[in-house]
């Protein structure tokens, strides 16, 4: 029960942060994607960078147990799914997490997004045997692999580079890019639209 309560508290805190940085507002997403306001992109890059530094630094120092690391299987369908997710994100201004947060803040359009996502998930479940038979779900590059090798992990590394060092370097790179990015590349700053 404590684990469930902790998950709810962390989820609510994460949702509040998503809302505060503008990730639940489709106009901010659109402004980020058309490069007129990169503040949200900077927030995302900073969060990924700090999270990477904390996780891989914690693993390197022995504070984070490697056994908790989860690696998803690589297969061709992931790339197709990523393209579909990106297209849906660009068209709707929501991704699954931000859609839930937007619905919690009262955006009615987010409810339609959530319904569409559930319908898409149901369609995938119904057509799963066809996807499996097509080969789109066959493992590529060994399935569950990481870019670097992490001692004690049950996953192979694509390179002999220390995964913890690689994770730290990439995390610091994300942080540097977050600070180096300008506020916008083109046009004038976009104005946010109020919740519907």
From TrEMBL:
The keyword Aminoacyl-tRNA synthetase does not apply. The chain crosses the membrane at residues 43-64, 76-104, 110-131, 158-181. Keywords: Membrane, Transmembrane, Transmembrane helix. InterPro entries: Sulf_transp_TsuA/YedE. It comes from the Bacteria. It holds the Pfam family Sulf_transp. This is YeeE/YedE family protein. It comes from Falsiruegeria litorea.
């Amino acid at each position: 029960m404590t684990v469930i309560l902790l998950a709810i508290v962390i989820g609510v805190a994460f949702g509040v942060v998503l809302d505060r940085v503008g990730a639940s507002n489709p106009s901010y997403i659109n402004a980020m994607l058309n490069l007129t306001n990169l503040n949200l992109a900077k927030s995302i890059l900073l969060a990924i960078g700090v999270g990477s530094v904390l996780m891989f630094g914690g693993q390197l120092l022995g504070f984070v147990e490697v056994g908790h690391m989860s690696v998803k299987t690589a297969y061709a369908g992931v790339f197709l799914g990523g393209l579909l997710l990106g297209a849906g994100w660009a068209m709707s201004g929501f991704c699954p997490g931000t859609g839930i947060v937007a619905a919690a803040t009262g955006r009615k359009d987010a409810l339609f997004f959530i319904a569409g996502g559930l319908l898409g998930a149901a369609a995938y479940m119904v057509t799963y045997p066809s996807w499996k038979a097509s080969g789109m779900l066959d493992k590529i590059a060994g399935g569950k692999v990481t870019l670097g090798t992490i001692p004690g992990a049950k996953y192979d590394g694509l390179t002999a580079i220390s995964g913890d060092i690689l994770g730290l370097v990439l995390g610091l790179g994300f942080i540097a890019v977050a600070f180096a990015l300008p506020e916008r590349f083109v046009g004038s700053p976009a104005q946010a639209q109020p919740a519907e």
